[in-house]
Design brief:
Order of helices and strands: EHEHEHEEHEEHEHEHEHEHH
Radius of gyration: 22 Å
Distance between the termini: 13 Å
Oligomer: single chain
Helix content: 25-40%
Number of helices: 10
Largest sheet: 9 strands, mixed
Strand content: 25-35%
Length: 286
Amino acid sequence: MVIAVAAGKGGTGKTLVAVNLALALHRAGLETALTDADVEEPNGHLFVKPAISEREDVTISIPRIDEELCDRCGECSSFCAYGALATTPARVLLFDELCHGCGGCTMICPLKAISEEERVIGTIERGRTPEGMGFTHGVLEIGEPKASPIIAAMKERLDPGVVNVVDCGPGTGCAAMTTVQGSDVCLMVTEPTPFGLHDLLMAVKMAEELGVPSLVVANKDIPGDTEVKRFCAEHGLEIALSIPFSMETARLTSSGINLVDTGEEWQRTFYSLYERITPMVGRGSV
């Protein structure tokens, strides 16, 4: 099972939910792995303190032009949808940072003047927490613009025999979509603010387009009627968990202390969240 934990924006408590859910399941005896797919700014390790035992580079294939063979016909630059190649009368210019590594230019070159070389864009690190839970996170190289190849590589390595809790990057861009796509269910973490509601709407649409069923977690929740609660009611979205606004919760989180470490009540709460997730598995179209 793959449970993606997403949010339309940063700062809503996505990592708080992912970490505490994973720990609650592991401590309840379920084989669980936590994957931090927020590769631009991973921070799940700060809360579960894994011992990293494996590191693996992630690369993409970058074209290289043989100027002796190239006749500047322009087929490669016309084909490239990302503007990574530009043909001039004197040479073909390459913009590595724009290349998505699709290999199309190499395939289409009529003179076979393009070869490929691997370029490292990030690293995948794996290990286990002190209590034995599996942990993986990706780290994007500084200055690299493309997170999706690292996320895709991490998803290929998920163990299908365990419960995988995957912490997505914020937003609804390519990185978040790559993470959510193919998941069994998506937890949408939001907060009762205008920004929270706006970005929840975009995140829900993203999950719908990807065919992944979703539930909502209302973090920093306040008593009474809110726009988020009205939105969920109008769109048939279940608020599976409400985490009340609390200065104590903020203090614990900022100190690196997990809610499930503070007592049995939070352990039961996050396990109950899992029990509300499982009936939704298999309802997606992907």
